[in-house]
Amino acid sequence: MGRICQGALGRAALCLFIAWTGTASAADFKEPAALAGLVKDGKLPPVEKRLPEKPLVLKPVEKSGKYGGTWRQALMGGSDSLIERSIGYTRLVRWNPAWSEVVPDVAEKIDINPEGTEYVFHLRKGMRWSDGAPFTADDIMFWYQDVLMNKELTPAVPRWLRSGSDPVIVEKIDDSTVRFRFSGPNGMLLENMATTFGSDILAAAPAHYLKQFHKKYNPDGIDKLVAEAKAANWSALFLNKTSFPGRWRNTGRPVLDPWKLTVPYGGTTQVVLERNPYYFKVDPNGQQLPYIDRVTFDIMGDQQAIVLKAINGELDMQNQRLNGLETRIVLAQNRERSGYRLFKAQPAWSNAMCIALNQTSKNPVLREIFRKKEFRVGLSLAINREELNDLIYAGQSQPYQAAPRPGTALYDEQMATQYTKYDPKAANEMLDKTGFSKRDAQSFRLGPDGKRISFAIDAATSRRYQIDALELVRKYWAAVGVEMQVRAVEESFAFARMLANEQDGLVWIGGGGYDFLGLLDPKWYFPYENQAAFASAWGIYFQNPNDPNAEEPPEHVKKQQALYVQMQKTPGATGQFAVMKQILEITRDQFYVIGTNMEADNYGVVKNNMRNVPEVMPDTFFYMTPGPTNPEQYFYE
Amino acid sequence: MLRYVLRRLVYTFATLAAVSVVAFLVIQLPPGDFLTSFSAKFAEQGGALDSDALTALKLRYGLDQPWYVQYWLWISGILFRGDFGESFEWNKPVSELMWDRFGMTVLLSGITLIVTWIVALPIGIYSAVRRYSWLDYVVTFLGFLGLAVPSFLLALALMYVFSRYFGMSVSGLFSPAYVNAEWSLAKVGDLAMHLWLPVFVLATHGTAALIRVMRANLIDELYKPYVQTARANGLGEMELLFKYPVRVALNPFISTIGWVLPNLVSGAIVTSVVMSLPTAGPLLLSALLAQDMYLAGSFILMLSALTVIGTLISDLLLAWLDPRVRYA
Asked: pLDDT exceeding 70 applies to what percent of chain A?
């Protein structure tokens, strides 16, 4: 796809560009069949007038396609992120399909100074919103001056747009160039922009549409609009138009996406989108994308109903909500009957079940026990992961710690496999080293307070297989004299307990896995935030030392947190990975989290006659599956 | 009679006031608030919402106030302005969300109720009159089966069968092609094609229960002396049956009307979720899970109001139907 290059001189800068821009000239652009009639009647300008001067030329996965068809998907409930992922993945920069780098999207080219403090975005000249209005630097400036810098709309500037406590400064250079300037280095700006955050910029950018809802530009009429919408105040009304999921409930909002809404996401009726006639990408033959004319989302209440749709051939391409072992088997069984094939949706995290013992638990005795590394190592050695694999994961998995996946830049074999070998004897020896070697009448170990070591681990009821696995772990641990209870709790309740640092132990999916996931979401590598369930209070300290639940962490944690701050300031993936490796060395030595088995691959369905869908893609919110695989170039044969 | 009605009305309002307080408290009982689940969603995406932003949101939604202040804001809006507040999760006025779902909910519950009665009444009467006949055994067996099988399970099984072997699109009330279409004969036809399955699932349990109740009640009546007297006086079997014992045995049917109204909202939530029905139940469930206070609170208030009013109506009907109730 694109490429990042680094110049030798300071001012030469890093740049991103598209390798094959310019292979199609204006004369070659081809009109999508569905729009030919409108153009002929004069209701729509011809394709070369709708495209920017330099459209993005997208190389299809397999071959150039033909126009037509409807892509049917299904959403669950009222705020499903799939809509944002599959047809809303348009931003200034995006992930490449392999998730190995950031490439240009709406921006044609980005210049970065070597310090990582200045980012110059070159927009495409002549680009237009889906309603035909021009898209220029002024739109980005509207987002910056009137949304991001407006205290009523953005009470606090998000961390990824700050350097320390100083928010970004955005300047207009000319009509198609803007500069993002930071007071200190912000090395992760482009990576963050490629995740879900990036869509918040473009959603709040169409100034010509949004000004009517902004108090500054419509001081007289705004009260009437607020009253009509029955909104609490003007900022609520405005944010309903721009933030997720409100922005999908509004057909009026102009977009830069391949498709635009015609029936909004209201919760009961089917959501419908039709092709955006002003979309800025073409294929190498000059055909304006997308190939597919229409996208629909049925709204379902239950995951099983979505699985049913999939096996009945009523979903054309989807992997969301089709996870799980049992589902995989049913999906495979119905392939021929319903005319679809499977593609691999590889979980981006590495572990199907991380066991986090809270080292900052509110119970002082447990805290003392959990902080002993020998205790954690002993418990890890006591787990029979091969048996877990056979009984719970149908042999599809393998023993693994909460570590980067094999084949990634950050992969560390020792970290991935240490203490995974089932060895009850070594486990007992290791546990004896903690000093808790005295046992009670039932042969359970006694803790520092002279009472039996006993604690509960929270498991979300929505992941039943984790509860089953944890029951087996309970048995393994009882065999080495440690009593654990499985506490099955509703997922959001478990989450609320974790945020308040109320859990003694918790199991969750996790472990960095893919490189960029570990970089962007390192909560399983060190106490990064309140979701680092093995030491919530230390993580809270990193985000906000003044929080009532925060506790000052020990030196090794502070070092990791300092390194992470350093990495955020480092521009370029190579430099970032180097720092991340230092963080991971400490993680490996500390062994915070007990991993069990690697998460087995999941599958999604794709109709046999739909082409240009990659056979493997990472599956995580940080990658925005399947957005980066360029759904605009999917087509029906 | 008028005093009876008035007294009941006073009780009704007292109950509703108490329920509204309790409902509001119960929703606030679990740890965290709407912002916990909101920030959970944000944190999932990388933790960009820091404590300043959370404080600002707390202010915007009024979540920093003690519960009684929040309660007053909510209840005074309802009492004085008819304003149920805004749903945090949907960013829409609560009343709009509730009305959106109301039509389909009434339709579905109404049809289910009618089907239940049409099926349960004759069968119940038959199996009481022809007690221990083979058909009675069959009906009794099916009745117990209907009572025992959870309706969501029945729904899942039927959905699988119909989609796997008949290729029907079984979720929701419309085929994908008609969901967004304007109302037309074809759309009504499509609705009819889809309606019978949820109605069947939802009616099974109620029908089975009513058959049992009807049978038991009627058997009690059939052997009372007044029936014998009427028969001795030469009254025809059919006329006798429908004029006296059946009328008396009908009382429990009338009592069920009290349940019909609240069932409109909360009836068979799990089944509605499984079948992706656009009714009120799934909305209530998601509001409770997300701690979307005003939406959940308004729903519970509505539910209580409907229960109380439903009970009132059924009591009045009973009083009208059966003089013994009136004078008791």
From this structure: 95
Provide the shortest C-alpha distance from residue A24 to chain B (in Å). Answer: 38
pLDDT tops 80 at residue B35: no
Asked if residues A177 and A123 have their Cβ atoms less than 8 Å apart, the reply is yes
Chain B residues near residue A493 by CB distance under 8 angstroms:
30-31
C-alpha dist (Å) from residue A170 to A142, A144, A173, A178, B288: 10, 7, 10, 7, 41
SS3 B241: helix
A contact test, residue of B89, B179, B294 with most A CBs within 10 A: B179
Q: How many CA atoms lie within 13 A of A466 on its CB side?
A: 26
Residue B250 is predicted with a pLDDT of: 82
- What does the domain layout of chain B look like in residue ranges? 103-293
Domain ranges for chain A: 351-595
Confidence of residue A21 (pLDDT cuts 50, 70, 90): very low
Share of chain B above pLDDT 70, in %: 87
DSSP symbols for B95-145:
HHHHHHHHHHHHHHHHHHHHHHHHHHHHHHHHHHHTTTSHHHHHHHHHHHH
Q: What is the DSSP string of A113-169?
A: -TTS-EEEEEEPTT-B-TTS-B--HHHHHHIIIIIIT-TTT-SS--GGGEETTEEPE
How far from the centroid of its chain's Cα atoms is residue A226's Cα?
A: 33
Helix%, strand%, coil% for chain B, nearest 5:
75, 0, 20
DSSP state of B88: T
Q: Do A529 and B47 touch (CB under 8 A)?
A: yes
Tell me the shortest Cα–Cα distance from A195 to chain B, in angstroms: 8
Contact A302, B276 (CB under 8 A): yes
B interface mutation test: which of A148, A251, A299, A312 has the most B CBs within 10 A? A312
| Long-range contacts (CB closer than 8 Å, 24 or more residues apart) made by A160-167 | A160/A186, A160/A188, A160/A189, A160/A192, A160/A193, A160/A197, A160/B46, A160/B48, A161/A189, A162/A186, A163/A117, A163/A569
| Model ipTM value | 0.75
User: What does the pLDDT look like over A612-629, one tens digit per residue?
Assistant: 999 999 988 889 999 999
| A564 has a pLDDT exceeding 90 | yes
B285: closest CA of chain A, how far (Å): 11
Say how far apart CA A344 and CA B280 lie, in whole Å.
37
CATH of domain A351-595: 3.10.105.10
Q: Are A80 and A248 in contact (CB under 8 A)?
A: no
Amino acid residing at A469: A
- The stretches of B45-88 forming alpha helices (DSSP H) are 51-61, 67-76
SS (H, E, C) A295-312: EEEEEECCHHHHHHHHHC
Contact B172 A497 (CB under 8 A): no
Contacts (Cβ under 8 Å, ≥6 apart) of B3: none
Q: How far apart are CA B252 and CA B210, in angstroms?
A: 9
* Least confident interval from A338-342, A469-473, B190-194, B215-219: B190-194
Of A160, A240, A300, nearest to B171 by CB-CB distance is A300
CATH of domain B103-293: 1.10.3720
Q: How many residues does chain B have?
A: 328
Question: Which tokens belong to B102?
Answer: 């109301």
Distance from CA of B267 to the nearest CA of A (A): 15
The Cα A136–Cα A132 span in angstroms is: 12
Q: A161 — alpha (psi -120 to 50), left (phi > 0) or beta?
A: alpha
Q: For residue A611, which amino acid is it?
A: R
| Chain A residues 142-181 with CB within 8 Å of chain B | 155-156, 158-160
Q: Looking at the partner chain, which of A296, A305, A531 has a beta carbon nearest the beta carbon of B274?
A: A305
